Amino acid sequence: MNLLLPTSYLPPISYVKKVLDAEHVYLESHEHFVKQTIRSRCEILGANGRLKLTIPVSHNDRREIPIAAVTIANNEAWQRQHLKSIESAYGKSPYFEFYEDDLRVILMKDYSLLTELNSALLKLIFKWLKKDLTITNTTAYTPNPENLIDLRSHWNENHHPSDCAPYQQVFSAKHGFIPDLSIIDLIFNAGPEAHRYLQR
């Protein structure tokens, strides 16, 4: 199974699961940037429920910007805000302290391109999962690719699969199980068992 996926900021669990199940993954590098999607946004579970973390991007006069050209607005203190929100959400999770430093190093680095940051985070996630990751960036935009399962539009605003097996979350007692959050929710809560969960 060969997949075509969008770039993603700290992607949802279902995204990582599909990468693990694929024979080869192609990452879309030439589509037009789609706002308010997993390309620049992730969801974590805070004390008040789902919390969206969005990377601010620099505005451009052009209406349609190729994803590979989208730059991060690093003049805004978004990194510290995201890290503070993540620590508030997962500081009491069983494995947060084991992974926090790795995440902080990448988030505090001033990447200029959104795709570069997302790729660095994806590599880190698969390092945590102890899985080799081979991804090919597309060389051109193809509306209807052949021999690829096209999932570029799969994760939209309301995509929250209900078939995810539950695991213990920090705020489960308050909110019940919330499925398909960012992969860091699973990793911070399940640690080394995260890989086994993803193989179900």
Task: Throw out a few tags for this protein.
four-stranded parallel β-sheet, alpha/beta, 7 helices, single chain, two-stranded antiparallel ribbon, 200 residues
Account of the protein in words:
With 200 residues, the protein is of the alpha/beta class. It has one domain. It is 33% helix and 12% strand. The protein contains seven helices and six strands, in the order βαβββαααββααα. It has helices at residues 13-21, 78-90, 96-107, 114-128, 172-175, 183-190, 194-198; strands at residues 2-5, 24-27, 41-46, 49-54, 135-137, 149-150. The strands form two sheets. Strands 5-2-1-6 form a four-stranded parallel sheet, with no helix packed on it. Helix 1 links the parallel strand 1 (2-5) and strand 2 (24-27). Helix 3 runs antiparallel to helix 4. The chain starts with a strand and ends with a helix. The mean pLDDT is 93.
